[in-house]
Amino acid sequence: MVERDRDESGRPRSTRPRDALGRPLPQGSDGVPRIPDDLELPPAETLAYAQDLLDRGLAFNAHEVLEAAWKNGPDDEKTLWQALAQLAVGVTHVQRGNVKGAITVLRRASAGLVQNPKPAPYAIDVAGLVDYADVLIADLAAHTAITPERLRPRLVVVR
Description:
mainly alpha; 49% helix; single chain
């Protein structure tokens, strides 16, 4: 049996390269640059980095950036960052053509976003993102074609 890649604490980690949609590629393949597991950025930088990745169609990588904020951030913000990471996972599922998975995760993201205090910290556009997720869910359920441009939600309120 092949040994799995593990981090210093023994937890399984995959060092295999991944494609733009986060799917594993064979060892030695050229993939997109990985997001470090220990990424720690201030919230504004996290949001800007994740937005840039979303804008470039790299929702899986955006999810990894947001997941790092969820895991490394303060306890009172974990639900918010988790919901943002789930939103990016939902977009990833749409990109991969997994409509059922997309709907499931987008519903979870929408529900998590609704639980956050108003106004959300860091100018996160909670209301806009809930609306975005709900409209995307409805369109996916109706088998409406989703263009790549629709898969670039705005994370913060544009002023």
